[in-house]
Design brief:
Elements: H1 3-36, H2 44-57, H3 64-82, E1 86-90, H4 96-105, E2 110-114, H5 117-125, E3 131-138, E4 142-143, H6 145-153, E5 157-165, E6 169-172, E7 182-185, H7 187-192, H8 194-200, E8 208-211, H9 215-222, E9 228-232, H10 234-240, E10 243-247, E11 256-263, E12 273-280, H11 287-297, E13 302-309, E14 317-324, H12 330-342, E15 345-353
Parallel strand pairs: 1-2, 1-3, 7-8, 7-9
Antiparallel strand pairs: 3-4, 3-11, 5-11, 6-9, 6-10, 12-14, 12-15, 13-14
Helix pairs in contact: 1-3, 2-3, 11-12
Bound molecules: the ligand C=C(O[C@@H]1C=C(C(=O)O)C=C[C@H]1O)C(=O)O.
Length: 355
C-alpha cells in the first residue's frame, strides 16, 4: 500500500468513527421523541421535511437521490428504535410493490407480502400491519381499478404516495431467446412492453403469452421451466436466480408507477402536500362543471381526475380527484366545504406529502 493510499484510508476511518457517533446520537434523539409521542410513531410530514431540507443543503458530490436513499435508511433504523413498523404490500417477494416499500420506509421494517390488493387493505384494517402499500396508477397503463374501488369502501386513510420508475426486464434460466416458447407476466407489464415484444422476439406468433397474478409469480414459474421467460423487475430475477436476457424493455423509458401508503392516521401538513378525494354529483347538464368550480375559485390545482363506475346504478360514476395542498390549508378547506354542499357524495381520502 502506498503512503498516500494509507493516509486516505485513515481519513475515511476517522470520518466513519465520527459518522458512527453522530448516527447513534441521532438514534437516541429519535428514541427520546418516541417517548414523548402518544401513539403514532411514523410521521410522514416530518420525514418529508427532513429529506427536503437535506436535498437543499446537499453540496455534492453525492446526488440528491443518493442522499435521499442513505437518509431513508438512517431514518428507517431510527424509527425502528421507537417501534418497528409492519408494512403490508402486494407480494410475493420481488414485486415492484416491495421496491416501493423500501423506497419509502427503508429496510428496517417488517414487510408483509400479501396475495392481493384486497388482502393489503384487510391486513391494515385489522391492525395486522401498521401501513399498506398499493399501486394506484401507472403512467402507461392508467388507473389500478381494484385499488380505487377499495379506497371508496375502506375506513383507512391515504398517508402518502410513492413514485417508482418501473424498468421491466425479460428474464429466463438462460439468455438464448430462440428456445423461449412461453412468456409469463402480469397483464399490466405485458401492456407496458408490447412494442418491444413485437419488435425483438423471434417466432413471436409461436410464443404463448400467459397472464399471472404478479411479475414475481411469473419469475417463479419461469425459474422451473427452461422454455419459459418472464417479464419482471431486476429484483425478481435476483430472488428467483434468473438471468436478464434484456433490460429496460418498457416502451416508455419514463414508465412510472404511483403507489399509495394507506393507514389509519390523519397526516399533518408538510408544506408541500396533496389531498385525495372521491366525489359524485347528480347526472344533469353542467353538474360536474359546477361541482369543480370551487377549485378554480380558490386557486386549487387539480393533478388528477379519474372516473369509476359507482357500482350503485347503471352509468353512475364517482370521481377520484387529487388536488395540490393540505385539507387544512385555508383555500383547500374552503373549496372542499363548498364541494361538500353541492356533491351527492364526498369522501376525503387523506392529505399527505407530495412524492
Ligand atoms: C424522530 C421522529 O420519529 C420518526 C423518525 C423520524 C426521523 O428519524 O427523522 C422522523 C419522523 C418519524 O417518522 C420524529 O417524529 O421526529
Amino acid at each position: 500500500m502506498t503512503e498516500q493510499l494509507k493516509q486516505l484510508r485513515d481519513r475515511i476511518d476517522s470520518i466513519d468513527s465520527e459518522l458512527l457517533k453522530l448516527i447513534n446520537m441521532r438514534a437516541e434523539l429519535a428514541q427520546q421523541i418516541g417517548h414523548q409521542k402518544n401513539g403514532v410513531t411514523y410521521r410522514p410530514e416530518r420525514e418529508s421535511q427532513v429529506l427536503a431540507r437535506l436535498q437543499q443543503l446537499n453540496p455534492g458530490p453525492l446526488t440528491n437521490e443518493h442522499i435521499t436513499q442513505l437518509f431513508i435508511e438512517i431514518i428507517s433504523a431510527c424509527r425502528a428504535m421507537e417501534e418497528p413498523l409492519s408494512i403490508a404490500y402486494l407480494g410475493p417477494q420481488g414485486t415492484f410493490s416491495e421496491e416501493a416499500v423500501t423506497k419509502r420506509f427503508g429496510s428496517t421494517v417488517a414487510a408483509l407480502a400479501c396475495n392481493s390488493i384486497d388482502d393489503v387493505f384487510r391486513k391494515v384494517e385489522s391492525g395486522t400491519a401498521s401501513y399498506g402499500v398499493v399501486p394506484v396508477e401507472n403512467s402507461t397503463e392508467g388507473a389500478v381499478g381494484r385499488t380505487m374501488d377499495l379506497l371508496l369502501q375502506t375506513s383507512l386513510t391515504v398517508c402518502g404516495e410513492i413514485e417508482l420508475p418501473v424498468h421491466q426486464c425479460l428474464i429466463a434460466q438462460q439468455t438464448d431467446l430462440t428456445v423461449i416458447q412461453k412468456i409469463y407476466s402480469h397483464p399490466q407489464s405485458f401492456a407496458q412492453c408490447l412494442g418491444w415484444l413485437n419488435k425483438h422476439l423471434p417466432n413471436l406468433q409461436a410464443i404463448a403469452r400467459i397472464d399471472t397474478a404478479s411479475n414475481a409469480d411469473a419469475a417463479r414459474i419461469a425459474a422451473a421451466d427452461k422454455n419459459a421467460a418472464a417479464i419482471a423487475g431486476r429484483k425478481a430475477a435476483d430472488v428467483f436466480g434468473l438471468k436478464i436476457c434484456a433490460k429496460n424493455i418498457e416502451d416508455d423509458p419514463n414508465n412510472t408507477t404511483r403507489f399509495l401508503v394507506i393507514g389509519t392516521q390523519q397526516v399533518s401538513a408538510s408544506g408541500k402536500d396533496k389531498t385525495s378525494i372521491v366525489t359524485s354529483t347528480s347526472n344533469r347538464p353542467g353538474a360536474i362543471h359546477e361541482l369543480l368550480a370551487p377549485f378554480a375559485r380558490y386557486q386549487v390545482s387539480m393533478n388528477r381526475l379519474e372516473s369509476r363506475p359507482s357500482r350503485r346504478g347503471l352509468w353512475e360514476y364517482v370521481f377520484f380527484i387529487d388536488i395540490e395542498g393540505h385539507q387544512q390549508d385555508e383555500n383547500v378547506a374552503k373549496a372542499l366545504e363548498e364541494i361538500r354542499n353541492k356533491a351527492t357524495f364526498l369522501k376525503i381520502l387523506g392529505s399527505y406529502p407530495s412524492a
